[in-house]
Amino acid sequence: MTATVPRQLVHRAAVAETYLTGWNRTGADRFAVSAQWPRAHGLHVSSDWSAYDPLLVVETVRQSGTLLMHTGYDVPLDHQFVLQEFQVDTFPEHLFVGPRPAELVVEIDFTQVRYRGTRPASARYQASVLRAGALVATADVAFTCVGPAVYRRLRGGRAPETVSAVPVPPGLPPAAVDRVQPGDVVLAPDDRPDRWQLRVHTAHPVFFDHPLDHVPGMLLMEAARQAAHLRSSDREVPVSYHATFHRFAELDQPAWIEASGGDGTKVQVVGTQGESTVFECVVATTAE
Fold first, then answer.
1. Contact, 143 vs 83, CB < 8 A?
2. Contact (Cβ atoms closer than 8 angstroms) between residue 161 and residue 97
3. What is the helix, strand, coil percentage profile of the chain, to 5?
4. What pLDDT is attached to residue 232?
5. What span, in angstroms and rounded, lies between the C-alpha atoms of 47 and 164?
6. 49: left (phi over 0), alpha (psi -120 to 50) or beta
7. Does residue 4 contact residue 18 with C-beta atoms inside 8 Å?
């Protein structure tokens, strides 16, 4: 707990965006990962420094699975992990910012690991995030593991240095999507009230911590967060995300975010490019 794990093990370039501090094996496919959350963050801590955003849980759980694939299952560092599903349910009463950085334990249980030869080809894990013994969140995550050659074929030659993002359209007012900085707004207005263009700014220091050849899953989930906020009649706070990722969201094609529901406690968000669905996410909310 005196330093973060090597940033390469969680696929981050910035030490400041690396939240994990250690890990140990507790069973054949069970692990405990330690983490620390900062008291201030440009994206994942409220502007009054009182609450952590549930998407910080998502990033912490993502980093935990990535770390353990490399350290617990010997997946090489040059392999990519492609998200298929990410479900997380949080308990907001435990997401307060205290007088010290929050110390977490993420209990991970790999319920399914499929191998190609001697290395994992896909995996599913369940996570429980604990803070001083209190349950902060539960999660269920599924992904595939892809080596460099397969990934190049999968991406058809697309690489960070060969793909340019579409121009970034003007965004919605930050307050409308519960953000402070204009650069954190990921939705641009459309002529339909329930549809927005996805704003992909590759200079964003959190979503694009390092160069990518596609739109990252965390940006798509932030889009779901902002769309749910717009759709909710009482501007409710998202507390859970059940996301399915169908295909890569490409940088050089416009993407659209549509939302429906919101009269009750759930908002259905769908991301599309052309005629294809990129991802779907059910966002559950609770009143502030």
1. yes
2. no
3. 20, 40, 40
4. 80
5. 32
6. left
7. yes
Question: DSSP letter at 46?
Answer: -
Q: What confidence score (pLDDT) does residue 233 get?
A: 66
Average pLDDT over residues 125-129: 98
Cα–Cα distance, 116 to 236 (Å, whole number): 44
- Tens-digit pLDDT profile for residues 210-223: 999 999 999 999 99
Residue pLDDT, tens place only, 146-176: 999 999 999 998 999 999 999 999 999 999 9
Record the tokens describing residue 213, joined without a space: 């050849």
pLDDT at 237: 76
| Interval 37-42 mean pLDDT | 95
Can you point out the beta strands (E) in the chain? 20-25, 30-37, 80-90, 102-116, 119-131, 134-146, 187-189, 195-198, 237-245, 256-261, 266-273, 276-286
How is residue 192 written in tokens? 């339909």
Q: Which amino acid is at 27?
A: G
* DSSP 8-state symbol, 225: H
List the one residue out of 18, 39, 57 whose CA is nearest residue 238: 57
Compute, in degrees rounded to 10, the torsion defined by CA atoms 142, 143, 144, 145.
-120
Q: What are phi and psi for residue 174, nearest 5 degrees?
A: -50, -40
Q: Give dist(CA 248, CA 259) in Å, integer.
A: 20
What is the sign, positive or negative, of the torsion defined by CA atoms of 43, 44, 47, 49? negative
Tell how strand 119-131 and strand 187-189 pair up. unpaired
Radius of gyration of the chain measured on its C-alpha atoms: 18
- Distance CA(49)–CA(46), nearest Å, equals 5
Tokens of 138: 């539960």
